[in-house]
Amino acid sequence: MRIALFSEVYWPMVSGVGVTLLRLTRALEERGHQVRVYTATYSLPKGQPDRPEAHRSPSVPLFLYPDVQWAFPRLRDVLEDAARFQPDVIHVATEFALGITGLKVARHLNVPVIASAHTDYDKYAARYGVDWVLRAGWRYLRWFYGQSYRVLCPSRIYQEHLHSRGVTHSGIWSRGVDPSCFHPRYRSDTYRRSIGVEPGDLLVTYIGRIAREKNLGLLLEAWDLLAPERGSARLALVGRGPLETDIRRRGIPGVHVAGLLDGRSLSTAYASADIFAFPSATETFGNSLLEAMGSGLPSLVAAAGGVLEFAQHGGNAWLVEPNSVGAIAQGLRRLLQDAGLRRRLSEGALRTAQERRWDEVYDRLLQDYQDTIDAGRQVTNSSWAA
Asked: Which residues are CB-contacts of 303 (< 8 A; sequence separation ≥ 6)?
């Protein structure tokens, strides 16, 4: 199968969507399929060449979110490249300029389209104070998604949200966790000492985008509230994003900003924590939470969004009221003080991770691709018959 993937977000940009799409590309290639990714232009890591599957379009930083590049595709260039690639199916993974380009390429080449939805725009609009765009925005999104055979959602919870907005031709593309990457065996005392954690101290860790929509401001307020009682516990923030520089500048006591980690370093950062903090209320799935579970961590989780697909209060996570400093502080206090609860949640987290394997996820996705291709053939044959 030959899959053309269109997305503004892709390696080396690190986000839940970017990591998911890179993982998808690698998994498809390992299974013998061919992938071409049409994406934006990002600065490459020093000394690293671009990935061979990537076709880059000229881009500028997105005004609301400068870490994301807004592409200006040259349709003729993309069309010529896609014609050489000869895709069987086009997968549009973002709804912006490159998604529109994917639809145009599909129309020119008579290739069927499947879409995937990754972002809860309602919650992001509220967080960034642009709620006024939603009415026009959903008219556009209904049109955009209407060009595809199926719209894949990361969770049933977000699928229900799309249905409430009038997008009903949907399916599920869930997420898994790789035990070779995320596992308690990567715990490291050396790592803990390197960020100031002494033997017997507790380490709370957040891993993900360092951005406003992740509710890190609330987490840091809760951390400050607990100052008189958290003793020598430390909080590590792992990732990159718009708030990273400001948080570093503030020099908050007991807080370590680790920056972006990947590979074995990321595995170590997860497994070396004692508690995982995940205050975001905007997730359509929550990849980081599942990776934390695979690493055996008890987690504090905002009870909102796609995480409710697999996070169970008192079973594999400790759920708290979303968007509440007091609830986060109370939950952290409970986890910091109750070692027995941490052990029970850790055991439940590992059981959950063991039930979510990538092989099953990709088997289902490939079937969705094949269904899309088959439906496209039926339309073509019906046109010829007419």
From this structure: 311, 313, 319, 320, 321, 322
| DSSP character at residue 89 | E
Note the pTM of the prediction, 2 decimals: 0.92
Burial class (CB in 10 A: 0-12, 13-18, 19+), 43: exposed
Identify the CA nearest to 147 among candidates 385, 376, 338, 381. 376
CA distance 345 to 312: 10
Question: What is the sign of the dihedral through the CA atoms of 121, 125, 127 and 128?
Answer: positive
Tell me how far apart the alpha carbons of residues 160 and 164 are, in angstroms, rounded to a whole number.
6
* 8 A C-beta contact, residue 332 and residue 319: no
Nearest to 105 by CA among 68, 73, 127, 137: 73
Instruction: Give residue 320's pLDDT band: very low, low, confident or very high (50, 70, 90).
Output: very high
Beta carbons within 8 Å of 286's beta carbon, 6+ residues apart: 278, 280, 301, 305, 306, 307, 310, 311
Rounded Cα distance between 273 and 201, Å, is 10
Query: What does the pLDDT look like over 219-262, one tens digit per residue?
Result: 999 999 999 999 999 999 999 999 999 999 999 999 999 999 99
Query: Would you call 67 helix, strand, or coil by DSSP?
Result: strand
